[in-house]
Amino acid sequence: MPLMVAVGVAWAAVTDNMFPTESTGSSCVLSMGHPPCQTDNREVYFYMDSSGEHKLESEDRSTVNDAIDGEYRPTDLAFHYDSSPVFEGSAETDIVYQEGSTSVPDSADGMTWCNARGGAHYKCDQQYIRIRGNGNYTYGLVCHETGHAVGLQHDDYSTPMLNKTDSRLGCMTTPVKSNDLGSNNRENIDGTY
After folding, report:
1. Is the pTM of this model over 0.85?
2. DSSP letter, residue 168
3. Which residues 6+ apart lie within 8 Å of 57 measured at CB?
4. How far apart are CA 13 and CA 92, in angstroms?
């Protein structure tokens, strides 16, 4: 898909907050702290870390499933749980959910970053979502970080730019004030995938 098409996909939406926008670069950056990239296709395979330092507890796993079921399955994206995740190569698991604070800035409850590019320069083959434990694994925050993993961005990267607490951004507000993905984000997702 040419960049010109990707930038203007959601004409009916209040704002275009799907990466890339006029307010971002057009290449996916493999690093924490950069705008999120689009996932590489509409079939999204996800995994929840089940062992080690970043293992999700049962309650957090339920929260991830509830947010995906309630907010993302009604969109044009097709989410599938990957019980045998792939961490390298050309068919990596699209989203890996983790719990923990390692490399998450003190000012953030969670973070999403691209680990491997996928196809086009604005797509990502594998993204990580890391959310702090101790009650921070909430439905709204899972909705927000999953939004980043499929390419939705904050207000300062949207075109036209909206206030970071504008309710039309749904769960993509900063700080997260809503559990709902919202019609603007759904339109951007469905217009892209």
Report:
1. yes
2. G
3. 99, 133
4. 31
**Which pLDDT score, from 0 to 100, does residue 1 have?**
39
d(CA 187, CA 4) in angstroms, rounded, equals: 18
Query: What is the percent of the chain where pLDDT is above 90?
Result: 73
Distance of alpha carbon 182 from alpha carbon 193, whole angstroms: 17
Beta strands at 78-81 and 110-117: parallel, antiparallel or unpaired? unpaired
Given pLDDT bands bounded at 50, 70 and 90, which one contains residue 30?
Answer: confident
DSSP string, 41-67: SSEEEEEE--SGGGPPPHHHHHHHHHH
CA 88 – CA 130 distance, rounded (Å):
19
What dihedral do alpha carbons 94, 99, 104, 105 form, nearest 10°?
140
Q: What would the two tokens of residue 11 be?
A: 């004409």
CB 157 within 8 A of CB 23: yes
Q: Where are the alpha helices (DSSP H) in 29-129?
A: 58-67
* Secondary structure (3-state) at 69: helix
User: What number of other Cβ atoms are within 10 A of residue 93's Cβ?
Assistant: 19
